Task: inverse folding
C-alpha cells in the first residue's frame, strides 16, 4: 500500500508522526505480503505532488490501498482519481466538510462537527452574544465561519459575523455586546496583536479560535491574562501518530476481510460499524465520514497549548 504524507517541509514533523503510527500498526499486525511505500507529498505545488503520488499508486497493479493525503486540498484532488481506480483511500487527518469520494474514508470529524462543538461550549460557558470573525479564504475561513454562525444561532446565541479587520480599522470598537470573539481562519503574523488588543478592550472577553489558529507560536506570544481567556477548537483528540496507526489498522482489517480484492477492500472499510479503536468507537457513514462527534479543545498555560478540561469563568 502507498502513503502520501508531508515528509519534508513545514508539516514534516506531523507527517512523519502519522507515518510512524502507520508503521507501528503494520509491525504489530505482521500481515504477510503487505508493504508500505511512503511518498513525500510536500512541494511548492502540494496538490500537484499528491496527484502524482496517487497516480503512481493507481498504476501499480499490486496496490491495495492509499493512506493519505494529509491536507484537505490534496484529498480533494486525489479522491476522484483513487475513486475511479477503485482504490481504498483513508485520509487520517483531513477535515474539510466538502471532501467526498467513492472509495474515501476519513478519520477526523469534519468542520461542521467542529462548529457544533464550539456552539455547545459557548452554551456551557453561558455566552449569549458572539462575534465571528473570519479570514478571506473561500475554502476555509468563509464557509467554516458561516457554519459556526449557524450552529451558534441554533443554540439560541445572538451572533454577528464579519471578515477580519483591515489595518486601518479598530477591532476594539467593533466588539459591541459580544461576550466572545471566535476567529475562523489561519494564524497570520498579526493575530497575536489582535488577541492582545481584544483582551485589552475587554478582559472578560472569551477569545476563541478554530484549528487554523491553534498554533504553538501564538500560545507562546500571549500574555497570561489573555491566555486564560483563550480556547482553541481542533478535530484532533490524540497525537497524530494515533491517526496514522488507526488508518493502517483499518486498512489491514479491510484487506484481511476481503482476500485482497480492491472492490471488496473498499466495501469492508466503508461498511465499518461500531469499531473499537485507539481513537475510540466509531462507524463510517455512507459518505465515508467518521461518525464520531468528539472534538478537541485546547487552552494555553505557561505559553504552551494544553488540553482543556472544562470551562473556567
Result:
Amino acid at each position: 500500500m502507498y502513503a502520501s504524507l508531508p515528509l519534508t517541509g513545514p508539516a514534516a514533523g506531523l507527517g512523519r508522526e502519522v507515518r510512524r503510527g502507520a508503521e507501528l500498526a503494520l509491525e504489530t499486525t505482521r500481515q504477510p505480503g503487505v508493504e508500505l511505500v511512503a511518498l513525500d507529498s510536500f512541494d511548492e505545488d502540494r496538490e500537484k505532488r499528491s496527484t502524482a503520488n496517487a497516480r503512481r499508486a493507481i498504476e501499480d497493479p499490486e496496490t491495495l490501498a492509499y493512506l493519505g493525503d494529509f491536507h484537505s486540498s490534496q484529498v480533494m484532488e486525489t479522491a476522484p482519481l483513487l475513486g475511479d481506480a477503485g482504490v481504498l483511500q483513508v485520509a487520517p487527518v483531513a477535515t474539510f466538510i466538502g471532501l467526498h469520494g467513492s472509495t474515501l474514508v476519513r478519520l477526523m470529524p469534519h468542520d461542521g462537527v467542529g462548529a457544533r462543538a464550539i456552539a455547545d461550549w459557548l452554551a456551557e460557558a453561558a455566552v449569549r452574544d458572539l462575534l465571528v470573525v473570519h479570514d478571506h479564504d473561500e475554502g476555509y475561513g468563509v464557509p467554516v465561519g458561516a457554519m459556526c454562525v449557524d450552529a451558534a444561532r441554533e443554540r439560541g446565541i445572538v451572533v454577528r459575523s464579519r471578515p477580519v479587520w483591515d489595518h486601518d480599522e479598530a477591532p476594539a470598537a467593533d466588539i459591541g455586546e459580544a461576550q466572545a470573539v471566535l476567529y475562523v481562519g489561519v494564524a497570520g503574523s498579526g493575530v497575536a496583536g489582535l488577541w492582545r488588543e481584544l483582551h485589552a478592550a475587554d478582559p472578560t472577553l472569551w477569545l476563541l479560535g478554530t484549528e487554523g489558529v491553534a498554533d504553538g507560536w501564538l500560545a507562546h506570544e500571549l500574555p497570561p491574562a489573555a491566555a486564560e481567556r483563550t480556547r482553541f477548537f481542533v478535530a484532533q483528540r490524540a497525537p497524530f501518530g494515533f491517526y496514522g496507526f488507526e488508518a493502517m489498522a483499518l486498512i489491514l482489517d479491510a484487506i484481511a476481510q476481503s482476500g485482497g480484492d480492491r472492490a471488496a477492500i473498499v466495501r469492508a472499510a466503508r461498511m465499518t460499524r461500531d469499531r473499537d479503536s485507539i481513537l475510540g468507537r466509531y462507524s463510517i457513514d455512507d459518505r465515508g465520514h467518521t461518525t464520531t462527534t468528539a472534538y478537541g479543545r485546547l487552552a494555553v498555560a505557561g505559553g504552551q497549548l494544553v488540553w482543556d478540561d472544562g470551562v473556567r469563568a
